[in-house]
Design the sequence.
């Protein structure tokens, strides 16, 4: 299930919920079901990604990083497919329960819209590396990660909690989305040699040096967007609590430029946890 990536999936949704809590009362069970749905989608994505990489041969071509279940032989293809079916069902049940608990019914415009969005999220989670035309193998993963790890969880979490759309939340949503793309970019920079045999990724298109420049742009732009949000909406100094994570991002970028390609794996969980801390502090600061 790649547990070290799960904080990234919760970062955006927690921020969206906490932004809504400033002016709205959000029941605990809505919060719980919203987080459960988000984590379930992330697990579905991770399982599907592993199966897709295994079937394409990507995981067997000298990939860096931790060994996965199918690669090590601890899970068979049939067992992984069963796990994926179970997680699809979990996503559907938790998603429908989230909508029902928040809006009182699924049969309303908001509920039906979220059902469609949830269906798209399930499709995106499964088809990064699975299917006849996996978008992750065509250099499109960055776009989908930006949408479904940034804009959708932050703005969607706010909408489920507040029953209204705040377009200003697109700024922190985009920031979290860019940091999430950064996580994918670290992964793809690390695996450039093995990926070159089976897929197309942004680092392969750019080359390692330009991929590092691209990574720097992702992180810096994310911070600028969050700064713009603070300028437009901040009411107290506590709204700037997320600045406490800035040294972590500076350290991360320094290592991205200094480390060899084979040494980049620790930078992935570092950025995941930095983004989670960033979101948590931004949300907490918003409540004061």
Sequence:
């Amino acid at each position: 299930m790649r547990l070290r990536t799960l904080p990234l999936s919760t970062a955006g949704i927690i921020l969206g919920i906490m932004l809504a809590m400033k002016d709205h009362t959000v029941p605990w069970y809505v919060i719980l079901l919203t987080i459960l749905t988000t984590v379930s989608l992330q697990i579905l994505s991770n399982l599907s990604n592993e199966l897709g990489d295994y079937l394409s041969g990507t995981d067997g071509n000298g990939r860096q990083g931790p060994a996965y279940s199918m690669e090590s032989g601890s899970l068979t293809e049939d067992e992984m497919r069963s796990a994926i079916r179970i997680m699809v069902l979990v996503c559907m049940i938790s998603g429908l329960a989230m909508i029902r608990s928040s809006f009182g019914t699924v049969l309303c415009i908001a509920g039906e819209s979220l059902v469609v969005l949830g269906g798209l999220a399930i499709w995106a989670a499964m088809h990064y590396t699975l299917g006849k035309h996996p978008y992750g193998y065509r250099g499109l993963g960055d776009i989908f990660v930006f949408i479904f790890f940034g804009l959708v969880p932050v703005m969607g979490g706010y909408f489920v909690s507040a029953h209204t759309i705040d377009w200003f939340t697109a700024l922190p949503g985009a920031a979290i989305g860019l940091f999430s793309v950064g996580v994918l970019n670290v992964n793809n920079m690390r695996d450039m040699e093995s990926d070159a045999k089976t897929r197309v990724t942004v680092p392969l298109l750019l080359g390692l040096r330009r991929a590092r420049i691209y990574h720097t742009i992702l992180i810096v732009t994310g911070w600028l967007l969050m700064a713009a949000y603070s300028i437009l909406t901040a009411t107290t100094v506590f709204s700037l609590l997320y600045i406490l994570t800035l040294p972590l991002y500076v350290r991360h970028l320094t290592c991205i430029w200094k480390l060899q390609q084979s040494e980049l794996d620790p930078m992935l969980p570092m950025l995941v946890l930095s983004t989670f801390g960033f979101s948590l502090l931004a949300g907490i600061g918003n409540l004061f």
